[in-house]
Structure formats: C-alpha cells, structure tokens
Amino acid sequence: MAAAAELSLLEKSLGLSKGNKYSAQGERQIPVLQTNNGPSLTGLTTIAAHLVKQANKEYLLGSTAEEKAIVQQWLEYRVTRVDGHSSKNDIHTLLKDLNSYLEDKVYLTGYNFTLADILLYYGLHRFIIRKLRHREVGN
Amino acid sequence: MRLFVSEGAPGSLPVLAAAGRARGRAELLISTVGPEDCVVPFLTRPKVPVLQLDSGNYLFSTSAICRYFFLLSGWEQDDLTNQWLEWEATELQPALSAALYYLVVQGKKGDDVLGSVRRALTHIDHSLRRQNCPFLAGETESLADIVLWGALYPLLQDPAYLPEELSALHSWFQTLSTQEPCQRAAETVLKQQGVLALRPYLQKQPQPSPPEGRAVTNEPEEEELATLSEEEIAMAVTAWEKGLESLPPLRPQQNPVLPVAGERNVLITSALPYVNNVPHLGNIIGCVLSADVFARYSRLRQWNTLYLCGTDEYGTATETKAMEEGLTPQEICDKYHIIHADIYRWFNISFDVFGRTTTPQQTKITQDIFQRLLARGFVLQDTVEQLRCERCARFLADRFVEGVCPFCGFEEARGDQCDKCGKLINAVELKKPQCKVCRSCPVVKSSQHLFLDLPKLEKRLEEWLGKTLPGSDWTPNARFIIRSWLRDGLKPRCITRDLKWGTPVPLEGFEDKVFYVWFDATIGYLSITANYTDQWERWWKNPEQVDLYQFMAKDNVPFHGLVFPCSALGAEDNYTLVSHLIATEYLNYEDGKFSKSRGVGVFGDMAQDTGIPADIWRFYLLYIRPEGQDSAFSWTDMLLKNNSELLNNLGNFINRAGMFVSKFFGGYVPEMVLTPDDQRLLAHVTLELRRYHQLLEKVRIRDALRSMLTISRHGNQYIQVNEPWKRIKGSEADRQRAGTVTGLAVNIAALLSVMLQPYMPTVSATIQAQLQLPPPACSILLTNFLCTLPAGHQIGTVSPLFQKLENDQIESLRQRFGGGQLEETLDLKAKMSPKPAVAETGTTAAPQQIQALMDEVTKQGNIVRELKAQKADKNQVAAEVAKLLDLKKQLAVAEGKPPEVPKGKKKK
C-alpha cells in the first residue's frame, strides 16, 4: 500500500473530515504533507503522529513517558524493519520476534491501543496477505 | 532501570549523552555486555544499547531510549523532532553504518567512505542553513541534536570527514561536541582512540548493504520538495512583473580583459593538456569543458572573467614523439597545438586565450621564479647516477638504452624493464648497455640535479592553506589529497632533467639541463597570460582583487595545490594563488568502469565524426561529470539521456511553448493574468533558479544542470495540467487561460535558454533566435525569474531543437569505438601531464616508460581493431589480442598495479 493511501485511511479512521493531499519524494516514495500554516512534513510516522494530534487523539501516542517512548520505538521499527527490503528470512525473523513479544500482551504498549498498532498492522498487512495466498496455492 | 551497553557500540554515544537529562528522576545502572549477547528476550538478533525499564519493558531503539530520557525531564514531543528522528533512522543510519563499516572494518579512506554519507550530510547542512537556527529543532539544543550528533560523532570527529564547505553543519557539530555531556559520552565510548574504538563491535556486524541508488552514479540525485511561503510567492511575483527593466546594462567587452578594482574578477584556468596526444573525452570533461561552463556562467553573472588554457609542450614525451614521427620537437608541438585548438573550437570552448608553454615568456618567468627561490635558499643540489652516451653527448633516458638483462640474460632488455622476464631494471645495471640511437656504449656518469626544498616551505604552505581553505570551494577530493600529502610530510623534489626540450636552467654547471615539466608547467598559466597582455601581473600578482579558479582532474591536485603554491610562496613576489581548486574524479569508458588498466577511448576529433552535434556531447559529458565520484561514459546511457532529458523533457517543453505562441496567437506573446497557481509556479521556478545559482557558485556543475532540467519538468507538467490546446477552443475565460499558460510557458522557455547557455551554447542561441529574446536578456542571468517576453512580443520561427538518437546508430558507434569488448575495456582518465613521478630519482625512468607502454598499448589496440574490422582470420586476431593483453600486463606492472584480470567473456 502506498504511503499516501495508508495516510488517507488513517485520516478516515481518526475521523478527520478534510482529506489532505500527499506528494511522494525520492525513490522510496516517502510521503510529504504540505501543511497550511507551516513547513511541510516528511515521513510516514511523522505525518501520522501529526494527524493524531490534529484529531485531538493524543492518547494514541501514549500517555506516560514510557508508553510514548514505546510507541515511537515501534513506529521506527515499522519504517526501518518492516518497510526495509526484507528477504524471506528477515520477514520470518520479524514475525517470530513480534509473536514472541506479543505473547503476553494485547497491544504493543500492553493494554492500550495506539498509533503503533495501527501502523504496524498496515505494514504487516502485505506479508500476511501474501502468506495466506501462499497457503491457498499450497493447498 | 538498567542500561546495557557494549564496547564500541556506536549507539552508546547518543544514549550516554542524553542520560544526563534523566538524572534525579530515575536510578540508572549500566552493564556492559558482549556485542553478541542477546539482552532482549523477544529479539532473535543481538541489539545494544538496550534500556530495561523498571516495569520490565525493553527499549531497544537508540532514539527511543534518548527520547525516553528527554520525556522524563519534561520535554514535549513535536513534529520537527519526530521528522528528524525518522530521517535519522531511515536515511542517515543506513548510509552511516555503511560508511563506518568501510572505514573501520575494511580500512577504506577518503571518498570511498564519505561518498555514501555526503548526501545526508548536505541535507543537514541545508536544513540548518534554511531555517537559520543554530539547532535542528530551534533555538535550543534538543533531542534531535543529541541523536544526530551521537550518530555522526564517530565519523565527523575526524576532520577529514567533515567537509569544510558544509559550514552550517560544521558549526552545529562543533557546538555540540564541546558540550559537557557530549564530551563525556565521547570519551567513554571512543576512549581517545578515535573511530577505531568501534572496531570490536563493528567487526561482529554483518556488512551493511550500501544505501540504495548509490551504485548508479549517472542517475540524478533526489529532488527535494520545496516549501513555499506566501512571502516567497509575493516576492517572485513582484520580480516577475518588473521584467526587462530590472536588467542592468551590459558590461562592455574589454580587450584585453583586465581586473577592475571593486569588481568581482574571476581568473579561470583549465589544466594544460599535454601536447603530444589528441585529447580524449576524459580530458575534455575533466578540464576544459568544466572550466568553460564556469567561465560562461561567470560572464552571465557579469563578473569580469578571464578564461585561459594552452598546450603543455616541453618534456621527454615530446622529444620521443618527435623522433618517432621524424620531426623536430618544435614541429611536433606546432602540429599538435593546432589539433588541440581545433578540437576545443569544435566543442565550443570559450577561451579568452589558448596559448602554449614554449615561449620566451615562459623562460623569462620560470627563470625569474627559480632565481628568487635560489636566492632565498629554497633550492638544493644533489648527485644522481645516470647513463650517458659520449657520442651523442647526452644523458640517456631509459627508453633510449638497451642491453643484456642482469636477471635472465635476455639480449634486448630495455633500460627500464626486461621484456622477457618482466623484471624492472635500473638502467645502470644493464650488462653491455647500448645507446639506442647510435649503438655505442654509454658510461655511468653522475649528474648534478637541483631540488626544490619543499620541507623548508611546508610551514608557509600550511599557513596559506589555513587562510584559504575555510569557506572556499575547493572540492573535497582536492582537500583530501593535499591533507594526506602534508600528513606524510613533504620531501625535496628534483626540478631538473637531462634534456634539451625544456626551459633552460640559468645556473653555471647546468647549461645542458632544463627544468622538469612539473616545476614549470604550472608557470605556463602565467606565461600564457603574459603573451596575451603585457599587464599580466595585474592578474597574477594581485591576490587581493583576483579570485583564481583552477580546474583539473584529481591527479593534478598536488601540482596546483602544493608544488606551485610552494614555489610562489618561496619566490615572495605576491603571486595570486588558487582560491578554488576544482578537481574531478575519473571518467570511465563503458565496461572500463573501475578498471585500472590505462588506455585510450574516444578522442576529441573522433567525436566530430560521429555526426552527433557538439552540444549533445557537451550535455552528456556534463550530465555524467565525475563530480564527487567516478562516473562512466556509456553509449546506451547517452542515447537514453538524449532521448529522455533533451528530446522529451527540455526540447519538448521549449518547442511546445513556442509552438503555442505561433499557432494559437499568431506569433505574439498573449496577455497573462496570473492565478494563485501560476504565482506558485513562478515561485517554484524562482526557487529552482536560485538553487541553480547556488550550485554553480559552488561549481557543482552537474547538479546545477539537473536543477535546470527540473524547471523544464515543472513546465511540462504545467502545460499538461492546463491543456492550453483545449482551452483555446473554449469560452472567453478559457481562451484567456490558454493565453496565460502559453505566455508563462514561453517565458520559462526564455529563462531556460539563458540557463542553458553555459552548457549548450549553440542550442541556447538557437532558442533565443526562435524566441527573438531581447539582447540584454540573452547575456545576463539574474537570481530572479523575470518576464522577458511581455505580452505583444513577437517571436520568430519555431522548430525542433533535438534529434532522436536511434539504437542502431548508437550500436554501430559502440562497435566502432569498441565499448564493451574485452580487449578494449579502456578507461579514460581525465588527466593532464605532468604525472606525479612515482619516485623522485632524478631520472625520467618511470613516467617515460609508462608513456612508452601506453603508446604501445594504443598501437596494438588499433591493430586489433583494424583486424577485426577487416574480419581477419580468427587465429591471427587471437595472436594480436594476446600481444595486447601482454602489453597491458607490462603496463600494469610498470605502474606498480596488480595485472588486470580479464573480465569475463565478450559481450554480444
């Protein structure tokens, strides 16, 4: 899913009515948001956090210092590890690590749903769909 | 909470520097673990540093740990910081870990290391500059600064990797490095061992894959999206509306061009090509063409500009060539000087002077500098042993001696190397030596030579460099080369030779000797100017008023950045010294990429025979200019760039803009009523124009060309979105809109014609004639985008500017010039003589021998080519190819390089 589409989806789920327009930059097609009252913002997680604040849903960024740091850690994980050019092996390790991390948790921060869950879900979507398809073919 | 760190893990730097923020808010224990210990239970791969929180949670991201410390101190998150940290994780880290790995684990140096991070460093520098704040996210130091500083510190603490031209980055980095928490973190992690302290950790890491897109050097760099404020847009509109009025009067042409007090006086030199060869594409892009672009740009800025070059004519190579061709050295020089001049004329190089070094002025000025050095005690004498032929009454250069090999007994060993056993020979060790010319037996004689006492001049040189380099536009490779010479310490250098063809040495006992070319070749610039005007000293002894730009390939840096400055400083005569030394990397040819085998590829005079216009050659060579890294000439790429950038982008836009004026508006520029969208476009074009200026002021020729192409891309989009060809058939409002779009587009075309002038002068003139651009607008380029073709202006006849290059045409050229074939994988070096001598022994051994071998390789290459063209017998071809490979092997040995391993099969 292109970053712009992902951000539009996020806008909707946040209940933001006015849709933003995004442009893409460079070979990795990094999303750029031209804001009305300031400089543009570049980067998926940067823009996503900005949208969350715009929607007055700051709790999605975590409530305590610890939660906030954890949310950002997983957002970084999303853009560096999940979006990296992963080999099959990398993907396997990544899913395994996440599985073991989530074993005793409901959400990435523990019990609170946050932006990290949304973006990680979007990011993993493509692997998991592929895996399912793969299985169908296998059967 | 507990922090796990590991010896030499770079992530510890920012974490330790940020830890101070949390002091007093939580207790912090620090444990050291091995680089391969898995601290985090759920992660398969080891990761440090890691912070284990009291809740049992783990933070395994360096940025997240730093962020947590800052959050504990009451800091609030903001967009700008998030953006910097995201950029750090996704862009900076991949580039940086590759650079650190190259440096620390693989022991690479210089541009091999810097190459991968330069773009990132430039990005930081530009951002700091643009927002005009001392710190990344505002007026005070914050999380983003600590994270980026910590990431960069291991590399940038070595000044060799902190490019001085990135001055904003420089001062930001220094400010942070002197702060106490940062200083302490640096000491803890690097332990005063510098970057090598990271070794125990980095060694255990997998080799990072090089950041994407770096391998393909011919591709454009990322275009950053511009952000525009209302103010910028308003300013662009105001400038546009002023139009032609804002152009200053044209400065009258002077002859001769002389410096003017109170003006910007730009003196431009291009490395002097050595006379005994036809220049190849490498010479052309490395020196004369790059300098030409800057000279033309400088004139467009109305700076008082003198651009000079000439042929370098003295030396053994000329003497040898003369013997080969049965001419006198003077005749050889006359012949080749004309060949050079013709080629540069064809390439449209706008020299104010194209002179030569074999003139009385050269003798006068060289001898004067020598006398001054001698009088001031900067010249040493020493004895060197050499073979002398009594009958010919001269010392023999190595290629003029033959004899029996002292190692294998081969009868016809040369003075430098045995063809049979391949061993290098010192000419005086040959048994039964013979003079190749008269066949008599030479004797060993010692010969007196003069040496320039560089160690004695070193301190002056360093002082001068200390004043000159900061804030100047010396290219990073030039800075690096000079720095490494100084680090190794300067040694006395022999400046005389036992030759006839050179500048005579004015000293008793040295009547039979001449100055070695590397002492007097750079003085050629002065003598060429002196032949142009008797007031040459106003350029060359006027460092206060003259800005000297010298263009060359990087192998010439020591002569221009070190030897000549030392001579000039020692002579104490207030010489103008180089302010901006612009050195290119090497241009390779087709598959000769990164191959070290030396040879020849496409020559300047052959380019003319291809039927491809000079401007297209200029464009492509400048597009792939080896700026910051080596690049490769490729026929296929040339076709692509011509057809995509010139034909489909630039040519298409300019032609459409002109055609709309002709077809829809009878050849008269229509009225323009600018909408907010148009105003935005104006501002975008202005911004890109500014970038073009910024880049060319810094002599980033290749990047500036891309800026120009970006404008025409904006233009094409603009036409595409607004569809004037449809609107012209619509309502009154639609027709007016079509007029505005056409008018604005044709004005962008006019602007492009001027920006294009330094790169493609003929095409530029053609566009300006088609558009009937008023004369002052053709010759001046301001930093604002003006309306130079106002409503009502009548344009001329518009016709297409570029031709498509076809596959079969390019394929036949490739065949003709032999790209992509094993025996012809030759790389072109953008170089000029003199070469830095391998070892300074006082004999002409090494360079001469290499030259001889290179000539033989060339000849043999031609034989092979001809045979192939005639479809000769396979075995015969194979035999000649074997000879060629052998010669190349010898050449590699002579150059002290490992013999080239043949690269796979021929490509078909």
Describe this entry's structure for a reader:
The complex is a heterodimer of chains A (139) and B (908). By secondary structure, chain A is mainly alpha-helical. Chain A has 2 domains: 1-56, Glutaredoxin (3-Layer(aba) Sandwich); 57-139, Glutathione S-transferase Yfyf (Class Pi), Chain A, domain 2 (Up-down Bundle). Chain A has 5 helices and 3 strands; from the N terminus they run αβββαααα. Chain A has helices at residues 3-14, 44-54, 65-82, 88-102, 115-138; strands at 22-25, 30-33, 41-42. In chain A, strands 1-2-3 form a 3-stranded antiparallel beta sheet, with helices on one face. The radius of gyration of chain A is 16 Å and the shape is globular. The two termini of chain A are 27 Å apart. The model of chain A is unreliable at 135-139 (pLDDT under 50). Chain B starts with a strand and ends in a 14-residue tail after the last helix. By secondary structure, chain B is an alpha/beta fold. In chain B, helix 22 packs across helix 24 and helix 22 (635-665) packs across helix 26. Chain B has 31 helices and 20 strands. Chain B folds into 4 domains: 2-203, Glutathione S-transferase Yfyf (Class Pi), Chain A, domain 2 (Up-down Bundle), CATH 1.20.1050; 265-377 and 462-584, HUPs (Rossmann fold); 648-794, Isoleucyl-tRNA Synthetase, Domain 1; 846-899, Helix Hairpins (Orthogonal Bundle), CATH 1.10.287.
